[in-house]
Design goal:
The complex is a heterotrimer of chains A (176), B (347) and C (250).
Chain A lengths: L1 E9 L4 H14 L3 E6 L9 E9 L13 E4 L2 H7 L8 E5 L13 E5 L1 H7 L6 H13 L4 H11 L8 H12 L2
Parallel strand pairs in A: 1-4, 4-5, 5-6
Antiparallel strand pairs in A: 1-3, 2-3
Helix pairs in contact in A: 1-5, 3-4, 4-6, 5-6
Chain B lengths: L2 H11 L4 E4 L6 H10 L6 E4 L3 H13 L4 E5 L1 H16 L5 E6 L15 H6 L9 E3 L4 H18 L3 E6 H5 L32 E2 L6 H21 L3 E4 L6 E4 L2 H16 L4 E6 L1 E3 L3 H7 L5 E6 L5 H8 L6 E5 L8 H12 L3
Chain C lengths: L23 H15 L5 E5 L14 E4 L5 H11 L4 E7 H7 L1 H9 L5 E6 L29 H4 L5 H6 L4 E8 L3 H19 L4 E7 L3 H4 L3 H15 L3 E5 L2 H4 L1
Parallel strand pairs in C: 1-2, 1-3, 3-4, 4-6, 5-6
Antiparallel strand pairs in C: 5-7
Helix pairs in contact in C: 1-7, 3-4
Classes of the chains: A alpha/beta (176), B alpha/beta (347), C alpha/beta (250).
Chain lengths: 176, 347, 250
């Protein structure tokens, strides 16, 4: 079975980083995986998205066009990709920044005010990780333990002091 | 690990002692990785003032017998073509990476395969070839870089990894094999100072007498014959009983493989021929793969370039159809499946 | 009988293809004398240009590499960076160094590459039959400036030593000539100094040699020497333009 995940938002929101954590979760669980960023001329701002495939089989196209799971961090990304989600797919979005006007009833949509929660808990830039917490709680795709291991791998040694904040963000996501 | 970084790490492990490059999207991570790592590995990293200078620095270093590499993306390869022709004409081995993007001109920065002709037919003036490897995964990028250094040394010719922006940017798990660093003996030709104990060596591609130039080119093409005989490589996937044989290389082959699987699910006997070497083109392999097929379908991220080699390889004995996207657009498995139905399902 | 004059050992005993009266032969000889005197033939790698001296690889006894047109400094960079204990020099003409290879020249200087460049300035493209060079003087008639070089149309000549001396990476820039015995001696001293600089890891050294091209200038060898003196030296003054060694600091 292959799970195709699309993460999308503004550059600088940590979309690629969150995708990397999911890819490493796959690695921790001995799955096949791929991580593919969109890349453009701009370094900050603009749109950023990334495709993550997790599978038991070798992965064909690493480009996710019709995701099983969508994580949306801004309005344009939500509006653009929510229509592409496969039937019975799941959508997680930051309800602080996004108005949900989607009328589809063949998918499950989970709202979480992740930006607000990050601010309230003094987790600057933690909105992306809060969404991942929500994702593992509602989808069960990875265990909390797997995700913690992945975070420890992905956070560079120079920023190791931020690992505990990421753990905290995961818990907030799981409990909201 | 990101494809671009994996290419760099593999090169260092393969004994590459110097990297000369110039920044260009979407391969820049490779140079950045080299800048960080090469020094620790006891090698040389230098950002050149231009693509032209970079390939000529490779020419200089490789002429002394050192394993040398440069990398770029499509527009940069056009600039490097001068130096590549000199490498070939001087029989100097080196590895060149092209992480392709859309063209012509400045084109775009999204993945493309529109440099197939350039890589296999015309990367510079004159009668010559490069070894061209076409990986389809991050792991294969690693394996092929190692092989490229080895084969370049063995045949004394430049070798290219023809990747694309998708492979360069994507991250996949990768393992680095143990490398047997038995470097090829280059003491017969390398110009690294004769130490007063041998005749002086000249690295040169100039022959003003037509007979001498012809002889040098003929000798080189004899080596190419050995390359064609011994170095072809291809993946054959579900080809034994296939009615329609899809042909694709690099990242496109991954998309096509998904489409082939979907076609099989709906009862269309599709198969995939994926050349891993573009020069030499796997002629025997494609004839084997297509022996039972009624039609072939080449899928490329270009307007159709490899299709020429396919037709030549099978001597136009069967119809060869084409489907491609260009400009940086990646074909989807659904699109390819539609083409399979159109071409192959109408029996 | 005592031998008082002989061919330098590192200058190979083969007929050269240069025209009668051409000064390339003198400069080749001077380089080889320096290589012999320093005893470095076995540790030297030379890089040839495209131009009249394209076949210089047949004349020098050390290992030689033939570079694409203008790219000799980049090739030399690749050699030197991977063989830092070897001596590396390029031998380039004005078209090679100051037109098609300007970027390679300037950037190898900015990087302070520890190499020697021997630059032959004869104000013309010799090998292709006498076209305008970047150093062709205003008013000079060539195949491609049949009415004389008009700066309004074709720009002004490049003064290479002056230009490169502004760059921090340049250790030594010296313009010499091979028109008289004293000047030839001076030229040899400059070449020796450039190689000694490399040995001492001083960085980028360039010796610009004002030379003649009787064939394409349409002059006899003697007239050509006179033109060098009367027209070239006033426009391209001889002298040391930069010297970061102790000697130069004095």
């Amino acid at each position: 079975m292959t799970t195709e995940i699309l993460l999308a938002g503004f550059g600088g929101q940590g979309v690629l980083f969150a995708g990397k954590i999911l890819a490493y979760c796959g690695l921790m669980d001995d799955k096949k995986l791929s991580w593919l960023p969109s890349y453009g001329p701009e370094m900050r701002g603009g749109t950023a998205n990334c495709s993550v495939c997790i599978s038991d089989e070798p992965i064909g196209s690493p480009l996710v066009l019709t995701p099983d799971i969508l994580i949306a961090m801004n309005q344009p990304s939500f509006d653009k990709f929510v229509t592409e989600v496969k039937p019975n797919g799941k959508v997680f979005y930051d309800s602080t920044l996004i108005e949900n006007e989607c009328t589809r009833n063949d998918i499950e949509i989970y709202a979480i005010p992740s930006s607000q929660l990050a601010d309230d808990n003094e987790l600057k830039g933690g909105s992306n990780i809060i969404l991942l917490g929500k994702l593992i709680k509602e989808s069960g795709i990875f265990s909390l333990e797997t995700m913690k291991k992945a975070i420890e791998k992905v956070v560079p040694p120079s920023k190791a002091h931020l690992i505990s904040n990421n753990f905290k963000a995961i818990e907030i996501g799981m409990n909201n | 690990m990101k494809g671009n970084e994996a290419l760099a790490e593999a090169a260092i492990r393969a004994g590459c002692k110097c990297f000369f490059g110039y920044p260009i999207t979407p391969q820049t991570e490779l140079a950045a990785y080299m800048a960080k790592r090469m020094h620790k590995a006891g090698g040389v990293f230098l950002q050149a003032e231009s693509e032209i200078a970079a390939i000529n620095m490779v020419l200089g270093a490789a002429s002394t017998g050192v394993r040398a590499m440069t990398s770029s993306s499509s527009p940069g390869l056009s600039l490097k073509s001068e130096g590549i022709s000199y490498l070939a004409g001087s029989d100097v081995p080196a590895v060149i990476i092209n992480v392709q993007r859309g063209g012509p001109g400045l084109g775009g920065i999204q993945p493309s395969q529109a440099d197939y002709w350039q890589a296999t037919k015309a990367l510079g003036h004159g009668d010559f070839h490069l070894l061209v490897f076409a990986p389809d995964s991050v792991q294969e990028m690693v394996d092929m870089v190692i092989k490229a250094f080895d084969k370049a040394d063995q045949y004394r010719m430049p070798a290219m990894i023809l990747a694309d922006g998708l492979l360069g940017q994507m991250m996949e798990p990768v393992s680095f094999p143990e490398i047997n660093a038995n470097a090829h003996d280059k003491s017969e030709w390398a110009a690294n100072g004769h130490g007063n104990n041998r005749k002086h060596h000249i690295i040169n591609s100039l022959y003003l007498k037509p007979d001498e130039l012809e002889d040098s080119v003929t000798a080189r093409f004899k080596r190419y014959e050995a390359v064609k005989e011994n170095e072809t490589d291809a993946e054959l996937y579900l080809t034994e009983d296939c009615d329609i044989l899809l042909c694709a290389f690099g990242a496109t082959a991954r998309v096509v493989k998904s489409a082939v699987n979907s076609a099989r699910e709906i009862g269309i006997k599709a198969g995939l021929f994926r050349p891993k070497t573009l020069f030499p083109f796997p002629v025997k392999e494609i004839n084997e793969a297509s022996k039972n097929a009624k039609k072939l379908l080449s899928v490329e991220m270009s307007m159709g370039q490899m299709i020429d080699d396919i037709k030549l390889a099978i001597n136009c004995s069967k119809p060869v159809e084409f489907y491609g996207r260009t400009g940086g657009v990646i074909p989807t498995p659904t699109e390819v499946l539609e083409q399979i139905k159109k071409v192959g399902g109408a029996e | 009988m005592a031998v008082v004059f002989e061919r330098p050992k590192s200058l190979l005993d083969v007929p050269m293809h240069y025209c009668p009266g051409c000064t390339h032969g003198i400069v080749h000889r001077l380089i080889c004398e320096v290589i012999d005197e320093m005893g470095i033939e076995g540790d030297t790698i030379g890089v040839c240009p495209v131009g009249c001296s394209v076949m210089a690889y047949d004349y020098f006894g050390c290992d030689m590499i033939e570079a694409p047109h203008g790219r000799a400094p980049a090739v030399a960079t690749g050699v030197k960076r991977t063989n830092p204990d070897k001596f590396v020099f390029t031998y380039q003409g004005d078209g090679d160094l100051a037109a098609i290879g300007t970027a390679e020249t300037v950037h190898s200087a900015t990087r302070g590459e520890n190499i020697c460049i021997i630059f032959i300035n004869n104000t013309i493209y010799g090998m292709t039959g006498g076209q305008m060079a970047p150093t062709t003087l205003p008013g000079q008639v060539t195949q491609t400036t049949p009415f004389g070089r008009d700066p309004q149309l074709a720009g002004y000549p490049v003064r290479v030593c002056e230009m490169l001396s502004t760059l921090t990476g340049t250790a030594y820039a010296h313009r010499v000539a091979v028109d008289t015995i004293p000047h030839i001696r001076e030229t040899k001293k400059a070449i020796r100094k450039a190689f000694e600089n490399q040995k001492a890891k001083k960085g980028f050294s360039i010796v610009e040699v004002l030379s003649t091209c009787p064939t394409n200038w349409g002059l006899t060898p003697t007239e050509a020497i006179k033109r060098l003196q009367d027209e070239m030296i006033p426009y391209y003054p001889l002298g040391v333009y930069k010297d970061t060694t102790e000697e130069g600091e004095k």
